[in-house]
Design brief:
This protein is mainly alpha-helical and 187 residues long. The chain has helices at residues 3-13, 21-37, 65-95, 103-113, 123-135, 145-153, 163-172; strands spanning 46-48, 51-53. A two-stranded antiparallel ribbon has the order 1-2.
Length: 187
């Protein structure tokens, strides 16, 4: 962990363990600069209601396997040094304040806390819907990636376009919105 990230976490200790938005955004800015300093194009910051969604899509066209491996090592190092712990603390304070280890439980808790699903909505139901979302295929249909994604989102019984739902998703299960993100071409 780098000095800036450590300082931000120490500062949070004096504020009931809450990382400030300023420190959160500074950590992501430091991550971006770290990647640029390693020779990569500046990574975009995809935001959903104030939360940064860690990149899910990369465009590695023109990159060798060795370059891709180095990229993943560099990205992991920059995340760990500059933003990982601050980002986790900030996001958890918003979407997972109970610090559930099981992210499906955290997601259902977030949805229930904000009255986005009925209190009877269960983790098992969420897991079933997530599996349908992940496994849904459209064989024989000529759909764009966006059209496929829009249809797959309907696997969930909650309103996926609701801003608070999107906050829960961005903080707990960002892979469910990965198809919305533009790929980053590191080189």
């Amino acid at each position: 962990m780098g000095d800036a990230q450590r300082t931000a976490l120490e500062r949070a200790l004096g504020h009931d363990g809450k990382v400030s938005r300023t420190d959160y955004m500074a950590a992501w800015s430091n991550y971006r600069q770290c990647m640029v300093d390693k020779g990569y194009n500046e990574p975009p910051l995809h935001m959903v209601n104030g939360l940064v969604v860690e990149l899910m899509h990369f465009d590695f066209s023109g990159m060798s396997d060795q370059q891709q491996m180095k990229f993943h090592q560099d990205q992991s190092a920059c995340l760990e040094q500059e933003s990982l712990y601050v980002a986790s603390a900030y996001s958890d304070s918003i979407v997972n304040p109970e610090l559930y280890v099981d992210l499906d439980v955290a997601m259902v808790d977030c949805l229930r806390r904000h009255e986005l699903v009925p209190v009877e909505y269960t983790v098992a139901q969420y897991r079933k819907e997530s599996k349908q979302f992940t496994d849904m295929t459209f064989d024989g249909e000529n759909l764009t990636q966006q059209q496929s994604y829009e249809r797959r989102r309907k696997a969930y019984s909650f309103d996926f376009s609701d801003p608070q739902v999107r906050t829960c998703v961005a903080g707990v299960n960002a892979s469910a919105i990965a198809d919305e993100l533009e790929p980053w071409k590191p080189l």
